[in-house]
TrEMBL record:
One of its GO terms (cellular component) is cytosol. Sn-glycerol 3-phosphate binds at residues 85, 113, 168, 221, 231-233. Keywords: Cytoplasm, Lipid biosynthesis, Lipid metabolism, NAD, NADP, Nucleotide-binding, Oxidoreductase, Phospholipid biosynthesis, Phospholipid metabolism. This is Glycerol-3-phosphate dehydrogenase [NAD(P)+]. Pfam families: NAD_Gly3P_dh_C (PF07479), NAD_Gly3P_dh_N (PF01210). Its main location: cytoplasm. NCBIfam families: PRK00094.1-2, PRK00094.1-4, PRK14619.1. Belongs to the NAD-dependent glycerol-3-phosphate dehydrogenase family. Coiled coil: none annotated. It comes from Tolypothrix tenuis PCC 7101. NAD(+) binds at residues 13-18, 232.
Amino acid sequence: MTNDNSQSVAILGAGAWGTALANLAAANGHQVRVWSRWGEETLEAVLEDAQIILSAISMKGVRDVAAQVKSLPVSPETIFVTATKGLEPETTCTPSQIWQSAFPDNAVVVLSGPNLSKEIEMELPAATVVASNIFTAAQAVQLVFSSNRFRVYTNPDPVGVELGGTLKNVIAIAAGVCDGLQLGTNAKAGLVTRGLTEMVRIGNFWGAKTETFYGLSGLGDLLATCNSPLSRNYQVGYQLAAGKTLEEVLSHLQGTAEGVNTCRVLMQRARQQNIPVPITEQVDRLLQGKITPQQALDELMLRDIKPEYHFEDGN
Ligand SMILES: NC(=O)C1=CN([C@@H]2O[C@H](COP(=O)(O)OP(=O)(O)OC[C@H]3O[C@@H](n4cnc5c(N)ncnc54)[C@H](O)[C@@H]3O)[C@@H](O)[C@H]2O)C=CC1
Ligand SMILES: O=C(CO)COP(=O)(O)O
């Protein structure tokens, strides 16, 4: 396909998600180059004249790759896009914070939504969100990826969009446990809905807007990952419920389940800041092998009874 507005796009990370995004941009007629740490092309060659640099590196590699990019010439006009869903253990930074601190003069856009890469590779329809403090940058990225099979919305709340995609991974592990234990549809609906409340609570604390969590990058991604065996995070929970150890599960898992590390980081930060995160807390104890899936369920069901919401008018 030819494209009069063809952009030069560098994709960093040739895993499942980087490859799917590269294919979407290439199908729209953009010039796409993909860099992988195992590939033949150098980072310098892939970045040359890039108008958009998109990172789909898993969380553990983001800071290192950002430092490598920083050592190379990058125009201040270049837009960075981050598609990673995780939190850095040492700093609790989100990926966009790492990219923005490495490139303070460049626009940074977060791309996140209900996007199971296998379905996107099968050319099934999907929607996503691109969020930035700089609206024109989000619009430019929207144009690069939008097509009749990938609907891209802009959003002005990058923190909310990024946290939605990150926090839902922990709830997806819990949802996998719920299905693995065959707890039924009512239990799953209760878990996912209270999971969303937990995500909003954390997100608000960290500066995200409530409405964003009710959109594609929050509720949307929560529904996708909590209901699909294609989700690696869901698979982790499902297999823990079958009695496997975390080590056994991770040794056979294809790709990255970011929720495992996110849960630890989130738990530490929530404790420091006194944010109640009951579901995350049980997932954390389960991942650490401190409790069984059944004990996690009992802990959640037998918490103190309380109102569903604290309304502002006191009712
Ligand atoms: N696969 C999916 O359906 C989706 C994944 N994501 C997110 O995208 C990110 C990547 O996910 P996948 O592509 O599925 O994972 P993956 O495991 O298939 O690929 C990860 C990529 O990161 C690279 N990488 C890891 N550490 C590195 C380092 N130190 N230096 C350089 N490169 C390094 C790997 O070589 C690989 O290319 C994750 O944060 C995930 O949550 C987001 C939406 C959808
Ligand atoms: O984020 C995803 C879908 O939006 C992918 O989920 P997993 O990382 O659990 O596979």
